[in-house]
Amino acid sequence: MRLPIEALLLTLVATPIAANDLSLSWPVDCTLGENCHIQQYVDHDPGPGAQDYRCAPLSYQGHKGTDIGIPYLTEVQRGIAVRAAAPGVVVGLRDRMPDLYATEEIAESLKGRECGNGVVLRHEGGWETQYCHMKLGSVQVQKGQKVQAGTQLGEIGLSGKTQFPHLHLAVRHNGEIVDPFAPDGSDSTSCETAPTAVDTAAATGAGLWAEPVPYQPGGFLGVGFNTAVPEFQAIKSGNAAVSRLSPDSPALVFWAYAFGGQAADRVRLSISGPEGVFSVHEVTLERNQAQFFRASGKRLRNKSWVQGRYSGVAVLIRDDVEIDRIEQEIVVR
User: Fold this and answer.
1) What is the model's pTM?
2) Beta carbons of 222 and 257 less than 8 angstroms apart
3) Residues 117-133: tens digit of each pLDDT
4) How much is the average pLDDT of 95-123?
5) Mean pLDDT of 264-285
6) DSSP conformation class of 150
7) Is the pLDDT of residue 196 over 90?
8) Which of 43, 249, 255, 297 has its CA 20 to 30 A from that of 92?
9) Which domains can be identified in the chain, with CATH numbers?
10) Are 302 and 216 in contact (CB under 8 A)?
11) Hey, how many other C-beta atoms are within 10 angstroms of the C-beta on 204?
């Protein structure tokens, strides 16, 4: 049965509501900041731009939900459960679309089915929640079924109009989009002065959530070593990191994969080995980037690399504040 998902998305920006009588549980089997992240929030800008509830650009024009992403496509294969955020009744579902990156070649086939495989739940008080982009064959509920908060609905996938594996969670009240982080709408006056990195890093969003959900202003999704600069697709697939390097490897490259990059952010990559630090590279982002990677390293100049343990450190800096730091070790032998 065709899922009445896209037709129910009636507004382009978050709409304030009179009463917050819905309590949401975290809908994905993951730990925010460890093995998942929020890639985009509901768009609060009524104009042609985009801004999240913290006045930062972690959204895009007209975005109607919260995108909870996982770093690598390999995690889709492993299976990451999507769960009901609140008790309700299944009023719509779809589970027949393949897991594919959305491209221009398939854009026409996705019209009217942008949500991909998904579930719509109806709750008391005029509320609905919608769960999109689930893995083909993973939906575990039926239309008309009553579910409790925490009931597994399916698994995160790559179906519908998407460029990365994630759950798109939409919340509606009487048919209008509500941002679960700011259900009363954002205060436009608070955006007159752009938030600093310290402001956004310290923020939490209680809103409709049963437990406050920390705000991430951007950060690293993963790091790794390779013998060459990997292709971005290999990084996103989860196949770009090697577990060991040999002494005659042609190069020693350290890469870092991140989200939420803003123009003027600095990414610093450093590598140290048995004889100390031998590579430090810092690059400044020229534009906002939803997801990106940077890599640095050295080619083999001598007969072989010194055997032993090597460490790579990646640091993301915004407004001279360290937003995130991650490191990885590898053995050369």
Assistant:
1) 0.89
2) yes
3) 999 999 999 999 999 99
4) 94
5) 97
6) T
7) no
8) 43
9) 6-211 (2.70.70.10), 219-332 (2.60.40.2550)
10) no
11) 12
From the number of C-beta atoms within 10 Å of its C-beta (0-12, 13-18, 19+), residue 275 rates as exposed
Query: Is the pLDDT assigned to residue 12 strictly greater than 60?
Result: no
Report the residue count for the chain.
Answer: 333
- DSSP bridge partners of 119: 93, 131
Task: Tell how far CA 16 is from the center of its chain.
Answer: 25
d(CA 85, CA 29): 12
Question: Residue 313: what are its φ and ψ, rounded to 5°?
Answer: -125, 130
Instruction: Answer whether 257's CB lies under 8 Å from 220's CB.
Output: yes
239 residue type, one letter: N
Share of the chain above pLDDT 70, in %: 88
Q: What does R_g of the chain's alpha carbons equal in angstroms?
A: 21
Query: What are 52's two structure tokens?
Result: 């999240």
Please report where in the chains the tokens 């909870």 appear, as a residue. 68
Question: 95 near 140, Cβ under 8 Å?
Answer: no
- Is the pLDDT at 174 greater than 60? The verdict is yes
**d(C-alpha 42, C-alpha 194), whole Å:** 18
Query: Percentage of the chain with pLDDT > 90?
Result: 84
Euclidean distance between the first and final Cα of the chain, in Å?
Answer: 57
How many other C-beta atoms lie within 10 A of the C-beta of residue 140?
18
